[in-house]
Amino acid sequence: MSTASMAADSKAAPVFVRETREGPVYRITLANAAARNALSRAAMDEISAALTRAAEDADARVVVIGHEGPAFSAGHDLKEMQAARRSADGGRAFYDALFAQCSDMMMQVVRCPKPVIAEVDGVASAAGCQLVASCDLAYASETSRFATPGVNIGLFCSTPMVALTRNVARKHAMEMLLTGEMIGADEAQAIGLLNRAVPQADLSATVRRLAETIASKSPLTLKTGKEAFYVQAEMGLADAYAYTARVMAENMMARDANEGIGAFVEKRPPTWTGS
User: What percent helix, strand, coil does the chain show, rounded to 5?
Assistant: First the structure.
């Protein structure tokens, strides 16, 4: 293949994700800005692979999902979805696979043994908003905007609704879902979709400080706590207390719990082993 052909192929192939790690912070950057970081099947493949690598990186303690360009993610690739209609079944098999894949990717965020933080400086809509809601924590610039606008194009945001209704009150969620209107970062913070909206110039530093603070904790404790948080949230009150009591008792048997309590009593910094 000629150099010119190789260059042309390189230009034709979009880069969906970039990955870096700075100390204990693993950063996944959605990098297909030209397509507003649409969640095509290929893009979700790359995001899932990046999440797997982040989960398996022994030196990573926290995962940050950020983005290039003016959109965190505009949601699914509508052109890809429309093209699937040309298949013999009208696209049904493709749509089943697409939404199952998206749901699996969102569950992968939830099940990642490390805290996952969304860093948003732009628009997050539809499945892009779903990804923000699926992250454990979310921070955004004050100029960012959020929406679940599927209702505007005849496709209700049913899967984004799952993450949305687990973050914000039902009436706020229904308003977003039924109107499809954009909300600003301040409102997103007020209803619980965001932890905090900050000035654009402060966003990266805010997320970095938070990530480093979390990364300073015992990795075993973070894994234990994140898993228990989501499990107990789906339980009734009595079952949740019974489950978390068992989790705490098991946690107490860990070396890091012994080390952390001992360090506190002895007024010294703890040394975590992750066990």
Answer: 55, 15, 30
Quick one: 166 and 225 in the same domain?
no
pTM for the full predicted model:
0.93
Distance (Å, whole) CA 115 – CA 158: 25
Number of structural domains, the chain? 2
Closest listed residue to residue 95, CA positions, set 36, 134, 48, 41? 41
Residue 171: domain span: 3-215
Could you give the angle at the alpha carbon of 167 between the alpha carbons of 94 and 95, nearest 5°?
5
**Distance of alpha carbon 244 from alpha carbon 242, whole angstroms:** 6
Residue 251: other Cβ atoms inside 10 A: 17
pLDDT value of residue 6: 42
Q: Which two tokens stand for residue 94?
A: 């493709």
pLDDT given for residue 4 in this prediction: 45
The answer to the question of residue 272 being in a domain is no
Q: What is the CATH number of the domain that holds 254?
A: 1.10.12.10
Q: In whole angstroms, give the CA distance from residue 218 to residue 210.
A: 15
